[in-house]
Design brief:
By secondary structure, this protein is mostly helical. The protein has 10 helices and 2 strands. The chain has a two-stranded antiparallel ribbon.
């Protein structure tokens, strides 16, 4: 580490040595330009006294502008040189502080106070010593693990999004329930409402797949019979009459305890399609 700082010091020194002669050289050039301009002015003044007025006045005006421009450049160079001096001073102070830190020496702080930056512990921190690590700035509440949302909470968010016609958010929440909590009592309902998200967007192919999974995988759930009915309706929308009829006609036998309204709806759909 010390070798790295020595290299840094050497590089900075080289840069500063290079920068200083460059600035000095610029100043020397400008001073020579000012000297030449002064000589030109003297010649023009002599010619003016001899009666050569018209052209000489123009040249004098131009030289006057050049003098002002050169003076401005001198001021700018002077400002840059002052800035360079300030940067050199800051770099030197920074290098001195870093070298002292590496050597474990004391560093003078603001206001003349002395700050001890030497190592405080020679041995590793004990495994069961939280106060020596975090101190008293962190409360026990802040160290508690973050509670994960339950299946019911995620499911409820899905229903709220569905009611608001935010089908993308509803789909995401129902899929989260199915992926993280596939055995939860609400998983069958989530599978059914996932199909409803697709059906509402007229994505009948995906809706049919979702309802089929609800019927096969969660047949005993409260939405088992509904899944079979919507499976038939999705097949009907896709123009697959045989599959739709199979779903409508089998609902009564597959779910004999289903609600009367549900069974009546399936029978009505089968009649309109001419199912046999």
């Amino acid at each position: 580490m010390r070798n790295q700082y020595r290299i840094l010091v050497a590089v900075l020194a080289a840069l500063l040595v290079h920068a200083a002669p460059t600035a000095a050289q610029d100043v020397t050039v400008l001073m020579q330009e000012l000297g030449d301009i002064r000589e030109d002015l003297k010649i023009l003044q002599r010619k003016t006294y001899n009666g050569e007025n018209s052209e000489l006045e123009v040249r004098v005006g131009r030289l006057d502008e050049l003098v002002r421009s050169t003076a401005g450049r001198l001021d700018e160079l002077d400002y840059k040189i002052k800035q360079l001096d300030e940067k050199i001073d800051l770099i030197n102070k920074d290098i001195d502080v870093r070298m002292r830190l590496l050597e474990g020496k004391k560093i003078s702080g603001l206001g003349g106070d002395v700050i001890d930056n030497s190592p405080k512990f020679a041995a590793p921190v004990a495994a069961n010593a939280p106060l020596s690590i975090v101190g008293d700035s962190i409360s026990n509440d802040e160290l508690k693990p973050i509670r994960k949302p339950t299946a019911a909470e995620i499911y409820q968010k899905g229903l709220e999004a569905l009611r608001a016609s935010d089908f993308g958010a509803a789909e995401q929440n129902f899929n989260t329930v199915l992926n993280k909590y596939p055995k939860d009592k609400l998983a069958g309902n989530a599978q059914y409402w996932l199909g409803e998200c697709y059906y509402a967007r007229k994505d009948y192919s995906r809706a049919a797949v979702a309802f089929a999974k609800g019927y096969q995988g969660y047949k005993s759930s409260p939405k088992g019979a509904d899944s079979l009915l919507k499976l038939g309706m999705s097949m009907q929308e896709l123009g697959k009459k045989n599959e739709a009829c199979a779903a409508f006609l089998s609902l009564k036998t597959e779910f004999p305890k289903a609600e009367k309204a549900l069974k009546a709806k399936a029978a009505e759909r089968a009649k309109k399609l001419g199912c046999k």
